[in-house]
Amino acid sequence: MAVQDVSERHEGYEAYLEGYARVLADASATGRRLSREELASRRALGEQAAEAGIGLRALVGAHMAATQAHWPTGSGVSVDDVLSAATQALDAFAEGYERAQRHAVRQEEAARREFIDDLLYGRSDLGRLAQRAERYGLRLSYEHAVAVARGPAVYDEGDPVLREVERALIGRFGDRSILLTTKDGRLVCVAPGDQHDVLAHFAKQAFAATGGGQVAIGRPQAGPAGVVQSYEEALNALDLADRLELDDPVLRAADLLVYPVLTRDRQAMADLVESALGPLRQARGGAQPLLDTLTAYFDSGCVSAEAARRLSLSVRAFTYRLERINKLTGADPSDPVHRYTLQTAVIGARLLDWPTKPL
C-alpha cells in the first residue's frame, strides 16, 4: 500500500521513466553495468525533462518510486545490484538534465548579451527592442538614465564586483526596473529616469566595490534611443575626465555640458588655443610648464598661494610665471577681462591635448 501511495504522488512523469523498469530488471539480473545505449537513453530523457521545465527533485522522487514499484525479484538478484543499476540510471538522467540546463543558461546569456548590445548601441528595430526590454523589466516608453562605472580592472558578467553591487542595489530597492550589466570592462546601470536615488546608490556602491573607481551618470532620456544617448553621455563624461584630469568620484553629464559646446567647433577652438596660448612656445622649456601654471591657477580659483602649493613652487616663483605668461601672450591671468579668454583656451588645450599634439 505504501508503494502505491508513493507512485501516485509521482504520476505524470511516466514519459521520463520510459524503459526504466526494463533497464533496472536487466541490469540487476546479472549485476552488469548499464550499456552505452541504456545510459544514452537515460540522458536523453533527462534533457527532455529539463526542457519541459520539470524540477529535478520531483524527477528523482519519481525514479525512487518507480524503483520501489518495479523492484526486481528472482534468484540471484541482490539489493546491491538493484541499487547499483538504479544509481547508474539516475546519474545518467541527471547528467542529461544538467546538460540541458547549462545549454539553456548559455542561450539565455547570449540572448541577454545581444539585448544589452542592441540597447546600448541602438542597433535593433526600436519597436522590437521595446518588446524585448519588457522581459528584463524595462519599459522603454519611459525615461531612463544610464550610469557607467570604471575601476582599475576589467569587469565581466561573472565578476564578483558586479555581484556585490547587484546585491546592494536589490537589497535596498528590489528589482525596481533596474538593469545591471557590464560593457567593455565597465559596470553599467540602467534605471528609470525619475529614480535618482537608484543611480546615486549605484555610484556609491560601485565606487566602493571597485576600490575607488569613477562613475559617470548620463541625463534621463525618453524612449529606446534615449538609453543610447544617456549611455553615450556617461561615456563622454569619463572621456572628458581623462582629458581634463577630473578626479571627482561621480561625474554628471548635466554638469559638463559646457565642454561639448566648447568642442563642437573644433577648428574655432584650435584657433583660440593657437592665438591665446601659442606664444607660450617661446618660453624656456616650451609651453607645457606655463600651461600647467595656468591650469593650476584656474583650478585653485585664481588663488596664487594655493596654485603654487599644487605645483610645489614658492609663491614668488609662481608669480614670476604669471608675469612671464603676461609678457608672452599680452594677456594678464589676474585681469577678469583677459581671464575668460585664457581659461577657455586652457580648457581647449586640455581637450585637444595641446601642445603634445599639433592643432
Structure write-up:
The chain has 359 residues and is α+β, with helices and mostly antiparallel strands. It folds into three domains: 2-104, no CATH class; 136-256, Reverse transcriptase/Diguanylate cyclase domain (Alpha-Beta Plaits); 265-352, PucR C-terminal helix-turn-helix domain (Arc Repressor Mutant, subunit A), CATH 1.10.10. The chain has 15 helices and six strands. It has helices at 2-9, 20-30, 36-51, 56-69, 79-121, 126-135, 160-173, 196-209, 223-244, 258-263, 266-277, 288-299, 304-310, 315-329, 336-352; strands at residues 143-150, 179-183, 186-192, 214-217, 221-222, 250-252. Strands 1, 2, 3, 4, 5 and 6 form a six-stranded mixed beta sheet that branches. Helix 7 (160-173) runs antiparallel to helix 8 (196-209) and helix 13 crosses helix 14 (315-329). The longest helix is centred in the first third of the chain and has 43 residues, at 79-121. It is elongated and about 110 Å long. Mean pLDDT is 88; it is low at 1-8.
The run of helices and strands is: HHHHHHEHEEHEEHEHHHHHH
* Top-tier CATH class of the largest domain: Alpha Beta
Q: What is the count of helical runs? A: 15
End-to-end C-alpha gap: 92 Å
CATH level-4 homologous superfamily of the largest domain: Reverse transcriptase/Diguanylate cyclase domain
Mean of the pLDDT scores? 88
What is the domain total for the residues? 3
Extended strand count = 6
Cα-atom Rg, whole angstroms? 34 Å
Helical content band: 55-70%
CATH architecture of the largest domain: 2-Layer Sandwich
Low-confidence stretches: 1-8
Largest sheet: 6 strands, mixed
Q: Briefly note the structural class of the backbone.
A: alpha+beta
Assembly state (oligomeric)? single chain
Shape: elongated
